[in-house]
TrEMBL record:
Gene3D superfamilies: Periplasmic binding protein-like II, Winged helix-like DNA-binding domain superfamily/Winged helix DNA-binding domain. InterPro entries: LysR-type_TF_proteobact-type (IPR058163), LysR_HTH_N (IPR000847), LysR_subst-bd (IPR005119), WH-like_DNA-bd_sf (IPR036388), WH_DNA-bd_sf (IPR036390). GO terms for molecular function: DNA binding; DNA-binding transcription factor activity. Belongs to the LysR transcriptional regulatory family. Keywords: DNA-binding, Transcription, Transcription regulation. Residues 10-65 form the HTH lysR-type domain. SUPFAM superfamilies: Periplasmic binding protein-like II (SSF53850), Winged helix' DNA-binding domain (SSF46785). This is LysR family transcriptional regulator. It comes from Xylophilus rhododendri. It comes from the Bacteria.
Amino acid sequence: MQIRLTPSLLAWLRCFEATTRCRSFTKAASELCITQGAVSQQVKQLEEFLQRPLLLRTPRALMPTPEGQWLAVVLGESFQAIEGTLGQLRVVQDDRPTTLSCAPSFAMGWLTPRLGDLFRAHPQVGLRVVGEFHALDRERMESEHMAAAIRFDLGDYHDLLATEFLDEWLLPVASPGFLAAHPALRGPQDLRAEDLLHDTSAWHGASTFEEWQWWLQQSGADTPQLGEMAAGHHFNLSQMALGAALAGQGIAMGRAALVLDELAAGRLVMPFGRPVRSRASYYFVTRMAPSPRTTLVQTWIAAEAARFRQQRDALLGLDTA
């Protein structure tokens, strides 16, 4: 016999499940926010509908009959399954800021100067930028309520969604004053290891002298031995190495995203004019189902990156089409 779950029958079942779980009409009524008499009446109507007793009413407690216990177990499992599914499907409005973890040098040199446009266009986004470059995985992003991250690396993520939004080009840079003080520096063959400024943490897992070695190799120049490389000055942020270059302390391996404004203003110059495509790129990293606000931020960053790429390619004479 097929029985249709009418609104009345669903209400009877809900009252019966709460009563058997609480072992009391009074406690069930408190949980359901109705009167004790209403709960008792609903259970009685269910028993009349089924034409069998479901509860044994004793002075001390309510005990389900065998049939009542069977129905109570089925109802408990069913309601839990329904509530669990609804919890997963429901879109919860989260008032917390959208936390974006970002590699510090990129945050300071590229992202932060552009954020005003995002806030003016989307004041509701509530973006919170955290500068750090620690390794990412799904568990960490969830536990720290991290909506997204921007990383400069090879994009090798197994349990996260990593989308490349900007490629990067490497180019040695120095201050005009440094070059004026070193007139013998005419080509890569004239580089001295002690004049090199290194970001020794280009990305998580990169070798200590990754960027200088890669540029020298791709430029066809002789690559100094690691021992010779160590004679240079070491920093753990690209921005720090660039700061040293601006101060005339040596030649830094610049990333186009971080040095374009300095090059345009003449505060830094390219002594060799040989940009080399980096092995790493900038990735927008999220969990597999990003929120609408996170997607909005990602779309804005992608558009900003496209505009920047046009400016960069024109200034550096790159053909990346």
